[in-house]
Design goal:
Length: 162
Amino acid sequence: MGYKNTDAFYELAHEGRLAYRRGDNLGIYAMAQLVLAYMCDQTYDWDRDRNQPPEKLRKANAPCRYYTLGWSGFAEDHGMVLLTPEQAMSEDADKIMRKRELNAKKQFSDAAVWLQERGIIKKLESASLGKNAGFLLLLGDDKENKAVEQWARQCLHLPMIW
């Protein structure tokens, strides 16, 4: 999963689409890049050469470039909610953990909003009780992104956008 998506991520970064103006220079939002790289790694690849889902995913009717792991998967895989041994043994362990979780959730959410504002990801499904939001990764040009979105909408039984 995701190695072609990761290649597309680096193309975006190289083109400056993940940069922002910082005075007279360009800066990078490292957390947003980390979040996007993780999303790329954790989603099914798109066949960029043919601009269609790979055959195996077409047969399975599986959406490509569609991230649904939410903030908690990201936070756990990046060690954002780990406690030190001393914290884990303290009476405040639950309180400390909640604080770490809230911080991780905020960092992930802020990065996701930043990526959405730049048109790099698009929320197709909102979060609901027991279900994470679904984000479509828009890693290609307009033609590729339209095809990726149409395929995802078809797989997820969402209304088509033309």
